[in-house]
Amino acid sequence: MNNNMKLHNSGQGNVDVKGYLFKVLAYWKLFLISIVIALIVAKFLNGYKQKRYSLSTTISVKEENNPLFSTGTNIAFNWGGASDQVETVRVILKSRSHNEKVVDSLNFFIEYLKEGRYRLNDVYGETPFIIELNKEKPQLFNKLIEVEILAKDRVKLSFDLENSTSTKLINYSNNTLNNYEMESPNFSKEYIVDENIVTPFFNFKIIKTKNFIVGEKYFINLKSIDATVGGYRNVRVNSITKAASMLSLSLEGTNKKRIEDYLNATVKILEKDKREQKILYARNTKNYIDKFLLREEDSLKKIEKELGNYKQNNNIYDLSIEGAQIYEKTISLDEERRLVTESVGYLNNLRNYILTHNKYNQESIPVPALIEVQDTKISIEIGKLVQRSTEREVLRNSVRENYPPLQKLNSEIDILKNNLLENIATLLSINKGKLNSLNRRIAKYNKELSKLPKREQGLVKFERNYQLSEINYNYLKQKSYEAGTAIAANVSDVKIIDPARSTEASLTYPKPGFNNLVALMLGTIIPLFYIIIREVLDNKIHTAEEIQHNYAIPVLGVVGRNRSKSNLAVFESPKSSVAESFRAIRSNIQFLFKNTKADECKTLLLTSSVSGEGKTMISINMATVFALSGKKTVLIGLDLRKPKIYGDFDLANDVGVVNHLINQKTLDEIIKPTKVPNLDVIISGPIPPNPSELLLNKTASDMILELQKKYDYVIIDTPPVGLVSDALELFKYADAIIYVIRQNYTEKGMMKMIDDKYKNKEVTNISYVLNDFSIKNKYGYGYGYGYGYGYGYGKYGYGYHENEETEGIFSKIISFIKPKS
Length: 821
Fold this sequence. Notes:
This is non-specific protein-tyrosine kinase. It is built from 23 helices and 25 strands.
């Protein structure tokens, strides 16, 4: 026996990577179809899904003060630094009040729509007109109003309430909704552009912005401000760098122009509001100073008049040298006492504010308007307190009180408050000492003043009052000027660095490249999973290598797919590849006949696991190939339960082996010649009720012995051993046994029984023949021939057992899906 017929156990533990690769590549059509379908679906989704774009703008948040003012006396004085400003801006940009201002300024509650391929598309910025609402009048709420262009200056407005006359009207001046009953559910009327349209249910003007194209149709929809604002509060605010107070504002939407206008508008309104907030203190301070300035001006005029009258009435116009010295010293002390007194008043107000408030912000904390902060530590600590308080309020909006970072902020705020109160107490103590010292010094000079003549004492008193009033008047006048300058020259702390531009919008959804990549992956993975599952569930024999690696019985040969109309492949197509494969088997089988003498008859028995594996076709063609080689051959059909041979030789199955075994006919009477030279055939005949018993009687044994004397080759076609035991009983007559396996049909466990008998040496001189072999680019091996499928297990035993039923299509599907045991 040649080496390629031996069992190759060495490969049992190895993974056949090449074989698996060939199996996968064999499904290239499935991969191609799957990928094409996936890409088609991806292309459809890329077009069908609503496109969303993202735009961004960059702003700087940095406190800007007029350099003309000193730090302590700046009218636009502002506690806190850039970090505080940044956190405040974050909160403002996401606040409802701010976004309401933006929506209202842009009239974004007006939707401009146009019919698209899949939906109504937002065409804001693309329409040849805009709507100018009369916000004091009611408007049709949340209903599509069709705008059809009829001419260059004429449009038709129409809407349909769908069989209902009840609708809602919205008044944007107070943002209220009211019910309204229409006379008819439909409305349609023509209007002239740029003219006021006045109806009970909408009041606006259509302003032409571009040339009209007659026939175009648009839709407008008036939504509520609340609903619109809710959709724009998702502006993302991110820090660009940790060091600089620069923020990036980004927003997503379906209309690039709408996103651009909204981002730019939100920054402009923020810039304006921040500037107004910044100069609010200056405005209030100026009003406060101006009131004092008017009173001080009146007081100064009154004192000046009293001073003139006193000088005239008392005939004294100049102070003596001693009086002038006392006057000069007391004036400076009076001014110093005034400043200390005001500082004490401010510190007391600041202390009371800290003790009575839990939230601290720039707008509410007391700011020194007319004095200079004595200790810079207070300014630093107040700035930190405002910053930490702002951070705490931002954090409180999203976490609970027991959140560790929030508790840490509370502790830091308590520490800052205590430090600030300690510094204030220290300053109050210092100022109290200063006031006591100043009062003692002023009392000393007042005592010296009392030694002067009465007229001079009165003149010093009037001069002191006048001088103090003049100093206060000039100081207030200077502060009023500073406040006015701060109002006029102040700038916002928010500056736009890079405005949003619709040309720079990026598509965020859907992402065609990503979707195509996912489609490509799914188009590859799904078939791959299908192949893996199919391979896991597949328990069929596919290649000769599988037989060699898993069974002890050697492979005698491979027969390709028979595409001729009958089973007489060798006789009818002697030059075909199928015929050649039988000739190769004829050569290889001589090794199985090594124990038989050359001039003796050789008996070949053919069997299989189940019906449908091509056992009869192999029997006929093996008999034919021996006969055509000049050997006298007889083919015996001992498959008594399901005879087939007679049909291929155009014979009637009325007389055969069964008739001889029951002694109705002689052996010569059942032997029939065929059209194949040197080939006789003995068909099975009528199906008997006891086929096993007939094959086991002495007549069957005598018949085979008699045939072995008459012929060179006796070919026996037996029943499948996987279904009945008849074939095993006939093995004793055979010099060689061919066990037929069919590609993609025979299950891997079917040959275990015969293989075990071979290992136990109960059966010898047996080999496998792989039938109906074809590669079809699926497994990487074979010749490209075929043979029709037969029956199966369950279906395989059809005709061998009683009361069998044909499987329905549902059972076949379940059988295919269900893993085989």
